Amino acid sequence: MTTTVSPETLATLKTIATSTITTLLYKRGFRNVYIQGARPLKPGQRLAGPAFTLRYIPAREDLDGLDAFLDPRHPQRVAVEEIPAGAVLVMDCRGDVTVAAAGSILATRMQVRGVAGIVADGGLRDASGIASLEIPAWCSGPSAPTNLIRHHALDLNAPIGCGGVAVYPGDIMVGDDDGVVCIPSHLAEEIARDAVPMERYEDFVLERVRGGASITGLYPLTQPENRALFEAWLERHRPNA
């Protein structure tokens, strides 16, 4: 069942590293949450939003000529026009990078419509053009050929597999320079809640390690003296402290 996630939670998740999220999900028994093969088209992109899915199956010659796009009901085109603002278009390309799942015109249209981002386990064409847009995008790499050569667009907003991960409509997709993670929607609030103090502690650890400290008893935290040092560090780093 899809859970509605608050804008405040999405804003928090957008600041959290995917590495932090994968660890927190692992603590809850979720091992397969990282979209394999999806890499950012440019560094510094951040993403957090609910999944709106599109599934491709292998193309068939009698169905997937260029005239397929003349049909206004073509699922790829419908997806671009119907995905809600703030959602993430997640495309199941079966890991096929030999063709493009979409290009810069469709990406531009989604940007204008307020879509939060694009995630594909296949290729994107006009990659430099998409990279120049504000809408963030993750894919398996640039690929010039049209999707019709290899893909038949089928299901919209149904469960899919993307990069080996089960993605259900409404799941929360979080992306950064490391890639994209899928959070089951009912866990998003608690992941966001637990991620902030976890990252604060890791900031403290990095500062200590840069200063020459051993990770023993520090990472993970097992020595009481390190806890005392962390609490003092938090006090010094309080806003307006």
- Work out the oligomeric state of the chains in this entry: single chain
Secondary structure category: alpha/beta
How many helices in DSSP terms?
7
Beginning-to-end CA distance, first to last residue: 43 Å
Give the SSE order as H and E letters: HHEEHEHEEHEEEEEEEHH
CATH topology label of the largest domain: Glucose Oxidase, domain 1
Give an overview of the whole structure.
This protein is α/β, with parallel strands linked by helices and 241 residues long. It contains 7 helices and 12 strands. Strands 1, 2, 3, 4, 6, 8, 11 and 12 form an 8-stranded mixed beta sheet that branches. Strands 5-7 form a two-stranded parallel sheet. Strands 9-10 form a two-stranded antiparallel sheet. Helix 1 runs parallel beside helix 6 (188-210) and helix 2 (18-27) packs across helix 6. The mean pLDDT is 96.
Question: What's the topology here?
Answer:
Elements: H1 7-13, H2 18-27, E1 39-40, E2 47-58, H3 75-82, E3 88-92, H4 104-112, E4 117-120, E5 123-124, H5 127-131, E6 137-139, E7 141-142, E8 151-156, E9 160-162, E10 165-167, E11 172-176, E12 179-183, H6 188-210, H7 224-236
Parallel strand pairs: 2-3, 3-4, 4-6, 5-7
Antiparallel strand pairs: 1-6, 2-8, 2-11, 9-10, 11-12
Helix pairs in contact: 1-6, 2-6
What is the structure about, briefly put?
This protein is of the alpha/beta class and 241 residues long. The chain contains seven helices and twelve strands. The termini are far apart.
